[in-house]
Each structure stands twice: as structure tokens, then as C-alpha cells.
Amino acid sequence: MAENQFSSRLLENAINEFAKLPGIGRKSALRLVLYMLRQSKEEVEDFGNAIITLRNDIKHCKRCHNICDTEICSICANPKRDETTICVVENIKDVLSIENTQQFNGLYHVLGGIISPMDGIGPSDLNIGSLVERISTEDIKEVILALSPTMEGDTTNFYIYKKLAAANCKANITTIARGIAIGDELEYADEITLGRSIINRTPYQETLK
Amino acid sequence: MAENQFSSRLLENAINEFAKLPGIGRKSALRLVLYMLRQSKEEVEDFGNAIITLRNDIKHCKRCHNICDTEICSICANPKRDETTICVVENIKDVLSIENTQQFNGLYHVLGGIISPMDGIGPSDLNIGSLVERISTEDIKEVILALSPTMEGDTTNFYIYKKLAAANCKANITTIARGIAIGDELEYADEITLGRSIINRTPYQETLK
User: Fold this and answer.
1) Which domains does chain B possess?
2) Can you tell me the ipTM of this complex?
């Protein structure tokens, strides 16, 4: 769509702003803006303010770097969670994904990214120092490295492993299991994953739990 | 996703607001909100304010009801446009679509909807009175009814036609051509459209223009 076709600067502005969002093109942006115009002024203000307030007032948990509204996030502050297990994740989206499984009752540590020289992200850009500090000051029995099984994830895992070892970490360091995803067909699995899934085979009875 | 899974009320609020938009589910909403969190405070404020300002400050053209920032829209105010031809459309999206074709140089009249008893929209909810007034006061040579060829569109066309006739309208009243869309295959065309396209066949030379 041409830039100067709109009869309103305000309309054009709003469309441009929506079109900046990932996955939203100019046609979708127009559709969303026209939807907004049909809503009441109060509803539109609620929408805009919710996003502005979020960006301005959001905090990061001092302990695990998860996002929250208070100094300490609701997971870290929950007395029912197991404080001796820390699950190390890349970002808050991964916290949500793991929480959704309802299979983990420990605490998290959000790195805020993974080591990626291509994107100019080095270890000092991540919350690794505070992880090492937690290991030293808290009573941690297990550190689960739950990063994506990619080149960058593996590099970050290895870096953290070395750092923890250098800090005399007594906790067990584990990673999430790698293998064939449930529902996947063997013939389409890549060789490395399939090979790893044979090496790390588990007793059949454990799959029945 | 469960409602109480988020560690932040602000995050949840923003996700809920995005998820209200048409075509955006809770997963997309989360993705958009996390994208927002990565932008600068200024960028997020620009986004929110662009939408709030649009809703609060938008005006409708006093002549054609198109949306604009001033009393009269840029199309109506453009001295190069043909003021004797009015194209009647359902909404501002249709104005944009027709403008994009670059095949129309007249003015518009935006009805703001079409007659649809199912949705409780009657003639009095539409900008039909002001259309009749324009016909009486302006020097109009042609009124193009450019509504969708649906039951509701045809009903609205007929209602407007009757109103204009009752107001002693001297202008030609035309509708957009109905027929087989360019690129469509004849065998998949519905019978009514195909039948109409035969009745309204046009001289071959006209298609060469």
C-alpha cells in the first residue's frame, strides 16, 4: 500500500505503529486499527495504557530475574516451591512453558538470553554472575540446565558448567532430556537425536509413571 | 493458558488487552507483549499514544463521512477530483480499496454500514439522509453504488435507489460490474454470477483498453 493514500495522518500513524509488530503486515495493521476505531474511547485507552504501563512499571525479580510487579517474583516468594532446585532458562517465555507442564516445583534462574557471538551476546550480557552467587549463598542441591539443544544453547550450558565448577559448586548439574519428541515418527528424526535417544535410553517402567 | 500462571499482573493485563484484538490469540498476544518489553520506553509510548490519539481525535468528513483529521477529508478537498461523481461505499476500508485501484477520480460517500436486519442495522443508522441531501444540493452527474454484491448490499442499493428516485435525483445511478473475477476459472464460478456475466457481456474491444 502506498504511504500517502490515507486521508488521515492519525490513521496512518496508528497503522505504522501496528505494522512494526512482528508478524503484522500493513493489511493486518489496517484491520486492527479499524477494529480499534469501533471500540469505545475507554476501551482503547485501557489497551494503550496497559501496554505503556507494562513497559514503564515492570520489574525483574532480584533473585531469579523473572519479570514481576514486586521485588521478588511470585514463584520465588512461594513457600511451597522447592528452593534447593534451580532451573536455568533462556527467557521468561521458557518459564511460562515449563510452568505450563506442571512438572517442576523448584525455582528458576532467567539468563536473559544465550551466548551468541553472531548476535554480539557474550557471557557478560547474561545473568550468569548472579547464578554463580546463588549457588554459593543458597543451599542448592540441583541445577537443571534447560536451554534449547542448539549450538548456542550447548555453548551456554558448557560455559555455565565451567563457571559453576570453578566456584566449587556442590549441586548436581543436569540438563533436560534430549530425544524423540512424543508423537514424532522415528523415520523423520535426525540421526544425532536418534543416536542420542538410544544412548540415553530409559528403563521402560519409567515411561509408565 | 491458565489465567493465574503469570508472575506479573501487568504482563497478564497487557496480554489480555492484545488477545481482545481480532485474529490474535493468547499465544500471539504473549509474543507481542514480550516484543513490546524489548522495545524502548519511548517506542512503546509512541505505540500506545498513537492508538489512543487516533481514537480520541479522529474526525469524520462533513461531506462524505470518510475519516480524516480535519473538517473535510483530503479527497473531498482535492480540487483535481471530479465533484460530479459520487461513489457510495459501505466503509472507509472500501474507500482505501478503491483508491488503491487508481481507477476512480470522483468523490465518495461512506454509508458507515449496510442495511442488515440480522445485526439490527436499519436505514436510519446509515448516512443515507446526507447522501440524498448531497444529490439535491451538489451538481452530481453520476452515483455509483459500490456495495458488496450480497443480500444486504443489494437491499441497501435498492433502498438508496428508491430514496434518490423519490428525491427527484437527475444523476445516473450505476453499480459496479458483477461478473467473473479476473484469474478465476469458469468451472468454479457460481451459476448466478456466470449467468449475470453473460447477460452483461461487454464489447471485446473494451477489455483491451
Assistant:
1) 3-57 (1.10.8.420), 80-176 (3.40.1360.10)
2) 0.76
